[in-house]
Amino acid sequence: MQDPLLIIALLACLAVLAILLMGINSFRKGTAQAAKESNKYMWWRLIAQFGAVVLIMVFVFVRGQSGG
Questions:
Q1: What are the per-10-residue average pLDDT scores of the chain (68 residues)?
Q2: What residue numbers bound the domain in which 39 lies?
């Protein structure tokens, strides 16, 4: 049986990876505008990463409470 909270947490991790890759790709261009854009992506990555960590901790807490 698939746990929906686990699936949501995994999707959040994939979103963090996608944002990270977009930021790295933007930074690779080397222009001043690209650096600003990369900084924006990395800011969004931090927010998404925080959300992913919270979801993972909620998942661990819920699974610990249910005993399995």
A1: 86 96 88 88 95 94 80
A2: 4-66
How long a stretch of residues is the chain? 68
The CA distance from 45 to 9, in Å, is 15
What was the pLDDT predicted at 1? 53
The amino acid sitting at 4 is P
Residues whose CB falls within 8 Å of the CB of residue 6, separated by 6 or more in sequence, listed in order: 59
CA pair distance 46, 32, nearest whole angstrom = 21
- Name the residue among 29, 14, 22, 13 with its Cα closest to residue 43: 22
Question: Based on the structure, what is the number of domains in the chain?
Answer: 1
